[in-house]
Protein: Mitochodrial transcription termination factor-related protein
Amino acid sequence: MENGRVGYLVRTRLPFPEKLFFCRAKFADSEVDGSFSLRVVPQTLIAGEKEEAKAVLTLFLKKQGLSNAVAARIINKSDLFIDHLVSRLHSVHKSRYLVGRELTTLEIRDALIPYLESLLEEHGRILVDVVENFPDPPVKDNPVTQVTPPDSGNDSKKLKAVSRVSETGPAGKLRPQVLYLMELGMDLEKIKVITRRFPSFAYYSLEGKIKPVVEFFLELGVPKSDIAVILSKRPQLCGISLSENLKPTMTFLEDLGVDKKQWAKVIYRFPALLTYSRQKVKMTVDFLYEMGLSSENVGKILTRCPNIISYSVEDKLRPTAKYFSSLGVDIAALLLRCPQTFGLSIEANLKPVTEFFLDKGYTMEEVATMISRYGALYTFSLVDNLMPKWEFFLTMDYPKSELVKFPQYFGYSLKDRIKPRFAIVNESGVKLLLNQVLSLSSSDFEKALKKKMEKQRVK
Structure:
């Protein structure tokens, strides 16, 4: 150490033109088409992501041999670089933010660590100067060999990880953890795909990481056939401590109302739920309470639609609630019946559907009634579902008001349910309510049809 710094770190600066180039290049990485920046993200979210970025950078610096005190001092001097990391995070995961989904701690680490490793590979021993002086770059001290981690570079890391899960031992067998995963239903190609996406997965030990998590899920009632799907969706789960993270997180969620008897289904539906911070979960739960939901109903939503936690409160949930409120919809009832609706884009999904029904002659009040009665109405494709079913509805000789009474019509298969049932009714020469035509079981449908035909004969 020299003056509290690691001895091999050198502080030098570039002339202005090179300095300007460095600044442009690095900030160019932080935006997509020059249109995506920190300004579009709520300040509360940015503050949380800054803390996550600081934690990732601290751990990375400590991994390079710096002490806690030195790493902390560097972090305190590096506000611009932290902002840069958050901006880069938004660039890498732009699609998530556009649909209002926030990132988990593990996703943030997965996005930033490879980038930090690439900087270390590029700048070596002067990385700290790059961090502290951003966007004014230092120059490398060419006579001295740079310090490069053995697994630097994202592509190199992926290749090594895939090679690791593919290689066989002296007996010609794959690694024990790979064989174990194959016994659970994963084939080698699937394991390679997961490893390319998440290289750390290749280095998880069988007895220390993978097996304990798998056995824990099996004890919860998760079918063995579902394990492969869960790990494919969220391989990071195998890197989380059972005693320090997974179990406490589950207890926390149970206290919020998640049905402990339904954990197998919850984990299968959205395994990422177990990787979100308590602060993020609490923000969503507080919003649900704010919308008028009871604690019991909040628990039902978290159990049935755990992925609602991934939606940004300020960028997704609140604007969607405001939009439906403007239509006259009961927000609490809609959240309870179909929380998935709140994950849709207002501009791309919700408004076009509303305008579709308004164009067909329905009033705003009737549209509100339809969505209140059938929350899933807005989750269907306008082109592939609503339009063709509307066109067929026009041939069924029902008044338009029938859809206000029974908007569930749009939830039935046109080919397998609507057309065959209507053909039978047509041939019988009688008329049933749209609800009776589609919602009744086969036997009840036959009974209703027979009863209607008998009444008509009596007349």
